Amino acid sequence: MKFENSGIEKLKADLNRLDEVMTDYGLVRAGQWDYERVTYDRKFELKEGVFYLRVQGYSVEGDVDTFKATIQLMTPLLGKHYYPHGVEYGEGENFPSSLVNQCKKILENINTEISKFAL
Predict the structure, then answer these.
(1) In CA terms, which of 4, 27, 54, 66 is 20 to 30 Å from 75?
(2) Helix or strand or coil: residue 9?
(3) Which residues pair with 69 in a beta bridge?
(4) Is 67 exposed, middle or buried (0-12, 13-18, 19+ CB in 10 A)?
(5) Cα 19 vs. chain centroid, distance in angstroms?
(6) Exposed, middle or buried by CB within 10 Å (0-12, 13-18, 19+), for 20?
(7) What is the pTM (predicted TM-score) of this model?
(8) CA–centroid distance for 105 within its chain
């Protein structure tokens, strides 16, 4: 599921500041990066299954490995994890409305925080 028009996809921000804000809202980058891309995930374990809120981005300036990069964020996603295949984001997935609303609120808060220092 895509969170279209969240506002996040319009933001460019410093990687280090971005890491701080995302961590504050439970989204971790961990080892999910390469020289040009980053992925922040927040895991939700519900009775309906395991879900991930994912915010991805790519470097428009600098390299992620040097921690000196400007990141262009992309449209946030919500996916359901299926063992052992991975996460599915398709429209055919059923996402609990309470989870969707919780994710929207998290994304609104992130958007507000990042907008304060976005480039």
Answers:
(1) 66
(2) helix
(3) 62
(4) exposed
(5) 11
(6) exposed
(7) 0.92
(8) 13
Give CA–CA dist 94/14, Å, rounded. 34
Tens digits of residue pLDDT in 81-112: 988 888 888 878 889 999 999 999 999 999 99
R_g of the chain computed on alpha carbons: 14
| 3-state SS class at 66 | helix
**The two three-digit tokens of residue 62, written as one number:** 């600098």
How many other C-beta atoms are found inside a 10 Å radius of the C-beta of residue 65?
Answer: 12
**pLDDT higher than 80, residue 52:** yes
User: What whole-number distance in Å separates Cα of residue 100 and Cα of residue 117?
Assistant: 26
* Exposure class string for 81-99: b at 16+ Cβ within 10 A, else e: beeeeebeeeeeeebeeeb
Are residues 28 and 40 in contact, defined by beta-carbon separation less than 8 angstroms?
yes
The number of CA neighbours under 13 Å toward the Cβ of 50 is 10
With H, G, I as helix, E, B as strand and everything else as coil, classify residue 83: coil
